[in-house]
């Protein structure tokens, strides 16, 4: 198995709350109280570097010990080569392999699964997983209300092989029918800079309300575990009401739910590792 050795996070300096939105149309309907918006100088690479450096420091690990970096950069600084390549020099991981693994909001889980397989195979010894999201600053039309429940930030995890427990199982599924729920077309294809489009398709609610939970049932069966075996539930935080619905439908007590939506809103792939970081440092998760 492989285990998460340490974590780190970075949240942009600018904190926005409901009081900042005088226009009632911009006020949150999702229950979030505040979120962080990246400034122009808080680039994707800058935020990723800060989170990665913190994770290494928390684990007492030198950048020189990292031989694999797996990164995801939402609204990246570079389309080619990728932002992840810059992190090698930024954290002092000279000679490390640099992968960019993009499965959108699920990228942290995909990266954790990939790192686990590679570490168990003996290909690498220490993996640094870094997620950064800059979608409010770069991908949202500020004249709309679509960004009111979104936040920017970065998070990181250091992962190493372990003989004393670790990752138990992963299930990943991609539903092609959900492709058009959230979209950002490539400017190379459209010829102009686009903004993120959020679907108001009625299927959206049903998909996130029940369909996505199928992978959890699959995971329980794969690992021979069930809701009663769960100590903490760390979900992708689309919205606080939906998180409670997930708990109820999965049979996991709401007291086991961990999230940071009220402080950070939805940071896409940054969500899960950031929640882990906050609660590891608070001593809730061992």
Write the layout of secondary structure elements.
Layout: E1 2-10, E2 14-17, E3 34-37, H1 44-59, E4 68-74, H2 83-90, E5 97-100, H3 107-120, E6 126-133, H4 135-139, E7 153-161, E8 182-183, H5 187-190, E9 197-198, H6 203-209, H7 214-223, H8 240-250, H9 261-264, H10 271-281
Parallel strand pairs: 4-5, 4-6
Antiparallel strand pairs: 1-7, 2-3, 6-7, 8-9
Keywords:
two-stranded antiparallel ribbon; five-stranded mixed sheet
Order of helices and strands: EEEHEHEHEHEEHEHHHHH
Radius of gyration: 18 Å
Count up the helices.
10
What portion of the residues fall into strands of 2 or more residues? Answer: 15-25%
Spatial separation of the terminal alpha carbons: 17 Å
Give the biggest sheet. 5 strands, mixed
Q: What structural category characterises the helix and strand content? A: alpha/beta
Physical arrangement of strands within the biggest beta sheet: 1-7-6-4-5
- What helical percentage do the residues reach? 25-40%
Shape: globular
Number of strand segments = 9
- How much is the average pLDDT? 90
* Contiguous runs where pLDDT drops below 50 for at least 5 residues: none
Give the structure's gist in a few sentences:
The chain is globular, with a radius of gyration of 18 Å. Strand 4 (68-74), helix 2 and strand 5 form a beta-alpha-beta unit.
Notes on the structure:
The protein has 286 residues and is an alpha/beta fold. 31% of the residues lie in helices and 17% in strands. It is built from ten helices and nine strands. The strands form three sheets. The chain has a five-stranded mixed sheet with strand order 1-7-6-4-5, sandwiched between helices. Strands 2-3 form a two-stranded antiparallel ribbon. It has a two-stranded antiparallel ribbon with strand order 8-9. α1 packs across α2. The longest helix has 16 residues. It is globular. The two termini are 17 Å apart. The model has no long low-confidence stretch (mean pLDDT 90).
């Amino acid at each position: 198995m492989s285990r998460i050795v340490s974590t780190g996070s970075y949240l942009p300096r600018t904190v926005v709350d409901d009081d900042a939105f005088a226009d009632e149309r911009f006020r949150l309907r999702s229950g979030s109280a505040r979120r962080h918006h990246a400034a122009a100088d808080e680039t994707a690479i800058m935020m990723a570097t800060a989170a990665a450096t913190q994770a290494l420091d928390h684990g007492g690990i030198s950048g020189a010990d990292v031989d694999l970096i797996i990164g995801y950069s939402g609204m990246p600084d570079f389309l080619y080569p990728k932002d992840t390549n810059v992190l090698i020099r930024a954290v002092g991981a000279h000679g490390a392999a640099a992968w960019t693994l993009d499965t959108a909001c699920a990228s942290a889980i995909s990266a954790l699964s990939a790192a686990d397989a590679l570490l168990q195979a003996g290909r690498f010894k220490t993996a640094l997983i870094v997620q950064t999201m800059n979608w409010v600053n770069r991908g949202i039309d500020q004249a709309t209300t679509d960004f009111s429940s979104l936040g920017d930030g970065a998070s990181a995890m250091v992962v190493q092989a372990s003989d004393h427990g670790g990752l138990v199982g992963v299930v990943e599924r991609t539903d092609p029918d959900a492709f058009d729920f959230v979209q950002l077309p490539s400017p190379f294809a459209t010829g102009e800079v686009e903004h993120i489009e959020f679907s108001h398709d009625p299927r959206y609610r049903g998909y996130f309300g029940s369909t996505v939970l199928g992978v959890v049932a699959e995971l329980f069966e794969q690992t021979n575990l069930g809701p009663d075996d769960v100590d903490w539930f760390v979900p992708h935080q689309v919205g606080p009401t939906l998180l409670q619905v997930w708990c109820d439908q999965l049979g996991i007590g709401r007291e086991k739910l961990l999230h940071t939506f009220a402080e950070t809103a939805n940071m896409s792939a940054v969500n899960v590792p950031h929640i882990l970081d906050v609660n590891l440092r608070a001593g809730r998760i061992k």
